[in-house]
Amino acid sequence: MKTGMTHLFIPGPTNVPEAVRRAMNVCMEDQRAPDLGELTIPLFADLKKVMKTTSGEVLLFPSSGTGMWEAAITNTLNPGDKVLMSRFGQFSHLWVEMAQRLGLDVEMIEVEWGQGVPVETYEQRLKADTSHQIKAVFATQNETATGVQSDIAATRAAMDAANHPALLFVDGVSSIASIDFRMDEWGVDCAVTGSQKGLMLPAGLGVLGVSQKALEAAKTSTMRRAYFEFNDQLALNKDGYFPYTPPIQMFHGLRASLDLIFQEGLENVFARHYRLAEGVRRAITAWGLRTCAVEPKWQSNTVTAIMVPETVDARDVIKYGYTRYNTSFGTGLSKVAGKVFRIGHLGDLNEVSCLAALASAEMSLRDAGAMIVPGSGVGAAQEWYREAHAESVMVAAE
Asked: Using an 8 Å Cβ cutoff, are 388 and 380 in contact?
């Protein structure tokens, strides 16, 4: 019999703060009430702040990040359009697969799992495309399956260096609201995320940032779409309404979530995610293990994929964590199944939360046969968190 809470350290759905859960505990409401816009219109404005856009629009669909992938494609592109994509993890793979199934001509670059968007290769391909056949460039900012974070600013710089007019699509599902994201500055045309990651809500709400360039492309797009039609949304969103039944309870939760983010300060949220992630990385080094991300520049601040020793099956680590220590870790997907387990450290977490994850991981690793020193990872993370806290106090005092 389990006692206490089951600790959730997967990279999504993430922990829902108590204030957000309470905010969603409301009676059913009229979706056409005259004052609904008082709740919904500020949500659009504040999500634009999170995405750092003043010129773009934000759309909300009862959906997921995957639905927003489809909405971005079907509203802005045409069947047979050529697009540039890269595959370096399960989620970038699924985006490639969707593009192909929707009838796009995908120029796909295979990348080692553990690396991210191949910016230099993108630049070469775009410079070679002198007739501008490539209509969109796709980039996954944070590949959740491998714990890899890519440089979207560099991706935009590569496009600019090639003087290429393609649209830029970014999967920010496990990065937006946790890792710095600058839609306007980086010239992102479609920015995809979901409610269950950095926004700290249950799954079920898709969020899509759309630039004016993308909205212009939508005027001539001939792809079939119905539910995900931009125009249907925008026509009603301006007054705070939706073309179908909206998840109003989720909107109340989103209001509370955004309030928490702005109370902490968006830049402070990014700094906290780096601080927590670095503690996890130092623990891994102390264990004598390594991350799936092959170089520090690729390491994600929202999820860490930990490579287990060859004699250990990562699925056993996950099993023992769940059955013996009430802890959920993320499993390895596809090519890295059995080779990695993942610790999600995004959303409503702090230093002590991460220490609990590391303590459970140490016990689970040892149960699975890994020869690591008990307390080594926890101790390394503790010292980092203490040093980082002391430094932040000194900076604040200045």
From this structure: no
